[in-house]
Amino acid sequence: MNIKALVLSAVAALALAVPASAHHSFAMFDAEKTVSVTGTVKEFEWVNPHSWLRVTIDDQTTGRAAQWAFEMGSPGQQAQRGWKPDSLKPGDKVTISFHPLKDGSRGGQLLTAAYPNGEQVGR
Questions:
Q1: Does domain 35-114 have CATH number 2.40.50.140?
Q2: Residue 4 contacts by C-beta under 8 Å, 6 or more apart in sequence?
Q3: Which residues of 65-104 are buried (b: 16+ CB within 10 A; e: fewer)?
Q4: Most exposed of 5, 75, 96, 100 (fewest Cβ within 10 Å)?
Q5: Residue 16 — φ and ψ, nearest 5°?
Q6: Is the pLDDT reported for residue 59 higher than 60?
Q7: For the residues 70-79, what does the mean pLDDT come to?
Q8: Where in the chain are the domains?
Q9: pLDDT at 115
Q10: Binning pLDDT at 50, 70 and 90, where does residue 52 land?
């Protein structure tokens, strides 16, 4: 009976540890750099564990539009900062300030988003 309780306890501990290990750090972003880009909202995902903002931005080198992805906090964290599920809609023009990805990919950790008139989203 003690072995059975021990095994059940071990299984329960592992089941609780797996979701915690699945969460990643923000080490992939270069916190020493802050970059700004302007583009058009393609999609705003208000989802757990992290919200995402996808923006179409004109690539200065090719002249073609490219999709960028910006990772945000959880919906709860974003709500504390004044964001709402409908804060941004496809077609909205925005200027994004972010910490870029260290590997140079198109995207980063969103810091702020602002409308063309300078008003910050979520404030």
A1: yes
A2: none
A3: eeebbbbbbebeebbeeebeeebbeeebebbbbbbbbeee
A4: 5
A5: -80, -30
A6: yes
A7: 95
A8: 35-114
A9: 95
A10: very high
Amino acid at position 100, single letter: P
CA distance 111 to 90: 19
Closest CA to 110 of 38, 58, 34, 59: 34
- Among 19-28, 52-61, 93-102, the range scoring the smallest mean pLDDT is 19-28
Q: Are 102 and 28 in contact (CB under 8 A)?
A: yes
- Determine the Cα–Cα distance for residues 39 and 89; give it in Å rounded to an integer: 13
- Encoding tokens for residue 101? 């990805």
State the pTM of this model: 0.78
